[in-house]
Design goal:
9 helices; mainly alpha; 3 strands; about 5% strand; single chain
Length: about 190
């Protein structure tokens, strides 16, 4: 009985906490490219490079690594990256919408939490797919990378392409968001 009252009194905090974890993931790097310098990419950078590509700047004057050109050569990876970003943005919007909607808060927060979790898992898949595709291309063009990486192309891909902190934070935010629904159902079952 004591736990039920405690859960009932503090379950309102799950949605703002989930949103408070999901929002910083917008600015954290989700992918880090270590090629001619370390270049982190947050969802803002990924979305900007995907939808608002600046064709007017000559390629030799670009200061950042062009992620879209790198990913677009691998169609399945490119699709997964875009889908992951759409799911993540949907989860942030859903979690923000759950705050004022008291009557359906737990259901909306649960849906937004599932979107955040799916976004992170899809991101993990897309980065692993990117590494595999990069390693396959490196193996095919073995003369370009030199003999020192022969049969170690995946290690080269692991060095060049890394996961950032962002998808892990979004995964945690999604888990916190689903706790709203779970706590709501636990209270209903006990009543």
């Amino acid at each position: 009985m004591m736990n039920q009252g405690l859960l009932m009194n503090y379950r309102f905090i799950f949605v703002p906490a989930a949103l408070g974890v999901l929002l910083p993931a917008l600015f954290l790097p989700w992918i880090v490219i270590n090629f001619l310098g370390l270049t982190p990419f947050s969802p803002i950078d990924v979305i900007a490079s995907t939808f608002w590509k600046d064709e007017s700047t000559p390629s030799d004057q670009k200061s950042r690594f062009d992620l879209q050109d790198f990913i677009s050569s691998y169609q399945d990876t490119s699709t997964a990256v875009v889908a992951s970003m759409v799911l993540y943005i949907g989860s942030v919007i859903g979690m923000a919408a759950a705050i004022p909607l008291r009557h359906h808060r737990s259901t909306i927060a649960f849906s937004a939490g599932i979107l955040a979790i799916a976004s992170s898992l899809l991101w993990f898949y897309s980065i692993d797919s990117l590494k595999d595709n990069f390693a396959q291309q490196a193996a095919i063009t073995g003369g370009i990378i030199g003999e020192e990486f022969k049969d170690h192309e995946r290690s080269l891909a692991d060095i060049i392409i890394g996961l950032g902190l962002g998808p892990y934070v979004a995964l945690a935010g999604g888990a916190i968001g689903t706790l709203t629904f779970i706590s709501h159902k636990a209270i209903i079952v006990r009543i």
